[in-house]
Every structure is written in structure tokens, then in C-alpha cells.
Amino acid sequence: MPFDPGLIGAPERLHGGSIAGFLEVAAIVALRERLGAGVAIKPVNVTVDYLRVGLMRDTFAAVEITRAGRRVANLRATAWQDGRDRPIATATINALLERPAEPPSPPPPANR
Q1: 68 within a domain of the structure (yes/no)
Q2: Which of 9, 76, 90, 106 could pair covalently with 15 via S-S, beta carbons 3.0-4.6 A apart?
Q3: What is the CA radius of gyration of the chain?
Q4: Is residue 103 part of a domain?
């Protein structure tokens, strides 16, 4: 996430909402890349742990998809600025997945 003055909360600090939103979007993008465009992704729970102050600079994220089942996905996202070993926040995201309906099976052949 490139730094922008509109992301500031307290003076010289990133707003927590911009960090949380960034982590959620990063998770959705990672899941979309894995599942493709045909699956609707609906986040139902996002828990963010703030670990350090986000400063006025670019922020990076990595996402781990811990589970992507038929109906539910669980993800963990981490944000950092100075180094991946110094995260500023982590998020746990749970999402519902809506896959397109499968066409009905054809009826069995009639016995004659």
C-alpha cells in the first residue's frame, strides 16, 4: 500500500482502519487468485491485531490461506513496513465462499 497523506490517523501515524482495510483486501486478492473469478468471496469475520505503530511510509502484506474449502475459507494476513520480521499488524479473516450452482445431472436412460 503506497503511503498517502489521506491514510493518516494521529499525527505521523497510519490510521488503524487503513491498515485493517489493506489486510482485508490483500486477503481477498490472494483468495481470488487461488479460486478464480467464478467464486463469490464474502468476509464474515476480520480480527486485526495491531503490533506496532504504522508510520508514514509504504506498507507491504503477505497472506497465508490456511484453508479454502467448498464453503468457507480461513486466511491470515501480515503487514509490515521496515522488514517482514517486524510486522505492524496481523489479521485473521474468515470468509464464506459461494460457488456457482452445478448444472443438474441428466436423468438416467429410460429402460425400453
Answers
A1: yes
A2: 9
A3: 19
A4: no
Q: What is the pLDDT of residues 42-79, one digit of tens each?
A: 999 999 999 999 998 999 999 999 999 999 999 999 99
Q: Quote the pTM value.
A: 0.81
> How many structural domains are present in the chain?
1
Cell of 35: 479460486
Three-state DSSP string of the chain:
CCCCHHHECCCCCECHHHHHHHHHHHHHHHHHHHHCCCCEEEEEEEEEEECCCCCCCCCEEEEEEEEECCCEEEEEEEEECCCCCCEEEEEEEEEEEECCCCCCCCCCCCCC
Asked if residue 24 belongs to a domain, the reply is yes
Other beta carbons within 10 Å of 50:
15
